[in-house]
């Protein structure tokens, strides 16, 4: 039976380092993805991810469990991202990961996705990343938390420390900027998507 | 809250888009979208943006962060005495204790006042003085009798010093005769066995990791070689096709009558 986050947290607080390793294994990927999309640099995202878990490990005795462990981690990671952006004082940019080329990606993807689809997806990924770069930090973070981590409006509001309506406004404004950006790149209404 | 949805209500539009909305309000939005082409188009466009957002993925990197609490003894630098056998360490400790006791002149006496523990040179010396009380009284009685008393005191002090040395040397000899008993030897054997087992485990772990790294590197190299061969084959094929076209062209040009 898989232990819950709360159980692993309790064991970690009792001194079981292996339980904390399990928490790291469970959450390193989402935290890394969050950091990557917010600050946009692979290596820095790795650093932020690692620092997030280090700080969580140190602060674990003070974790009282009022919030979910994941929310607590997200908060630490977002604070680190904010510090990083403030420290660097530069607009986040998105680097393509080093050493990745189409052929290698095709080999990883297998026969499910053709090379043409792969190239198109890469191109679209780059355009989306460019669009995200245009957004203010708060809007970008709100979109990342909503779209890629599936948080509720309320959870995002708590993480960003703002009212619920502000989160909705940030999402609307961010999506509108992205919409204009995609349209300017010829991606006008490619999909007849319906509201989910 | 009004019974109808208005176009400017972007918060509700976003709530509808992400399906975090009260069912009643949702129905109102849907009613509105059926009659308002502008809002319907906006919802469609924003939904399309959401679909495009899914194409942006974070790199698939091996993170593999580990937080392992090392045993305390691993973190400490090895002590210089770690190579000395346990029995020798015990003997050395007893020796140091005995020498210290000899230097400090520790004396334990049982008397009418109970058990008396005294250290240092001055206190024990006072006891013989009190023992020599009658001699002191005799000194008062006769001014000439102070010399034998002084000689007796000197003798007493010399005996005290000699006895202190003897105690130290006896303890040293006793400690030198100390040999590891069966329990100590057993403990040493157990420690050695545990150490060997730990070293074997570490060695096995490192060998496994090395083996895995070699395999991963080998697989990666094979994939790269395969890709390079494929690229070379593709390039060669294209070059051959181009030369064949050139040859055909030259053939056609050199035989215009055909």
Please tell me about this protein's structure:
The complex is a heterodimer of chains A (196) and B (258). Chain A has 196 residues and is mainly alpha-helical. Chain A contains nine helices and no strands. In chain A, α2 (17-39) packs across α4 and α7 crosses α9 (164-184). Chain B folds into three domains: 10-53, no CATH class; 86-180, no CATH class; 183-258. Mean pLDDT of chain B is 74; it is low at 70-77, 123-142 and 171-178. The chains are: A mainly alpha (196), B mainly alpha (258). The interface between A and B is large, with 57 and 39 residues.
Largest interface, with Cβ-Cβ < 8 Å?
A-B, 57 and 39 residues
Any idea what the CATH superfamily of the largest domain in chain A is called? RNA polymerase sigma factor, region 2, helix turn helix motif
Please tally the β strands of chain A and state the result.
0
Mean pLDDT of chain A: 81
Helix content of chain B: over 70%
Tally of alpha and pi helices of chain B: 9
Q: Please give the alpha-carbon distance between the first and last residues of chain A.
A: 33 Å
Instruction: Give me the CATH fold name of the largest domain in chain A.
Output: Rna Polymerase Sigma Factor, Chain: A
Low-confidence stretches of chain B: 70-77, 123-142, 171-178
- Number of domain units of chain A: 2
> How many structural domains does the protein architecture of chain B include?
3
Q: Mean pLDDT score of chain B, rounded?
A: 74
Provide the β-strand percentage band of chain B.
under 5%
- Strand residues, percent of chain A: under 5%
Biggest sheet: strand arrangement of chain B: 1-2
Ordered list of secondary-structure elements with their pairings:
The complex is a heterodimer of chains A (196) and B (258).
Chain A (H helix, E strand, L loop, with lengths): L4 H9 L3 H23 L2 H18 L9 H20 L13 H8 L5 H20 L2 H11 L5 H8 L3 H21 L12
Helix pairs in contact in A: 1-2, 2-3, 2-4, 3-4, 6-9, 7-9, 8-9
Chain B lengths: L9 H8 L5 H13 L1 H17 L18 H4 L10 H19 L2 E5 L2 E5 L3 H10 L1 H9 L4 H32 L4 H73 L4
Antiparallel strand pairs in B: 1-2
